[in-house]
UniProtKB/TrEMBL annotation:
Record Pfam families: AP_endonuc_2
Domain Xylose isomerase-like TIM barrel: 20-241
Cited SUPFAM superfamilies: Xylose isomerase-like (SSF51658)
Keyword field contains Isomerase: yes
Name of protein: Sugar phosphate isomerase/epimerase
Database matches in InterPro entries: IolE/XylAMocC-like (IPR050312), Xyl_isomerase-like_sf (IPR036237), Xyl_isomerase-like_TIM-brl (IPR013022)
Amino acid sequence: MVFGISTACFYPELTEKAAEWIAGAGIPAAEVFFNAPSELAPEFLRKLRDTFQRGGTQVISVHPFTSGLEPLLLFSEYERRFIDGVELYRRYFEAAAYLGASYVVLHGDRKESQSPQTLYFERYARLDEAAKSCGVRLLQENVERCRAGRGDFLAAMKKVLPDALFVLDLKQARRAGEDVLGLLKVLGPSVRHIHMSGCGPEGDCLPLHRGDFDCRGFLRELTNQGFSGSVIVELYRGNYGAYEELSQSVAILERGFQSLEG
């Protein structure tokens, strides 16, 4: 199991500045949230890769800033736009591979969509094949405002697409009224990546030293299910103060995991 921080935590700070802080703090792993088309340019990617390599930080995954456009680009009934959308997302797949990442995160269609589930699953499979051709995999995220925010949809997806992989976002599960451990059991070993956050009276997306979330208990459940993937702290900028709260959360994860091993 590896622990890290998403550059999304720093938004609207520049992506390269977020990378510099994560690498400078010696954080073992990172997710890169791209925020502009120019950040997919070769020179930008080279500098980003060099920054992480200097800090010994492993890039696990990347997250497209075009997530909000995925219903239109990838899940409408207009086939030509989907084909073009795949080519757009190929840039993310290639960027991920260049950075040494294994995954690209997908939000998917909006939950109000009336299109058939069969269309969604067929499109997802084709997009994942494009990702595989670049040496990476697609990860479906459980986002509250999206179709995949519901446990029943995720269960159906896993049944139809047994090869599909998932990222479990704790704050999004809370917002959707879904039981985090329940989702973990439904998806089982298909979960490869966690977006981690604490919760409590102050809110549903907190650093791990605040609130009352049983972090050690959650790590124990992950361990019991044989999880060996990545646990990435992902908070919104308004939910914490100093950047050091992010590295403090990583330290809590590392200590909690070590205590289980002991």
